[in-house]
Backbone:
């Protein structure tokens, strides 16, 4: 009888610990997801439009002979760097969403 009680107490403790672990994992995943969403919002609303506009203006200056190829390459690099940052943030958001679903027993 004492053995059965000890086993039941052990099972209860394992259940509580598993629940806490899942809560902690869900909270971590949620924080990562929110951070990635904010990064995506900033990139989409501010960074990408600005570097794209800068590239367009640099192209105008380049065609007019007022900017050299180096400036054009720098502007293109800024656009590509921003796009890579966006893709990395998107990947991070999806991974966090998957982690959140796993922690909460979602789809």
Residues:
């Amino acid at each position: 009888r004492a053995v059965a009680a000890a086993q039941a107490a052990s099972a209860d403790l394992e259940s509580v610990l598993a629940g806490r672990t899942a809560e902690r994992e869900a909270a971590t995943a949620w924080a990562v997801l929110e951070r990635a969403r904010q990064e995506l919002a900033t990139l989409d609303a501010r960074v990408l439009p600005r570097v794209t506009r800068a590239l367009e203006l640099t192209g105008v200056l380049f065609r007019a002979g007022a900017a050299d190829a180096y400036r054009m390459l720098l502007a293109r690099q800024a656009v590509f760097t921003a796009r890579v940052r966006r893709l990395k943030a998107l990947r991070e958001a999806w991974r966090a969403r998957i982690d959140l679903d796993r922690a909460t027993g979602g789809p």
Observations:
- The radius of gyration is 25 Å.
- The CA atoms of residues 2 and 8 lie 10 Å apart.
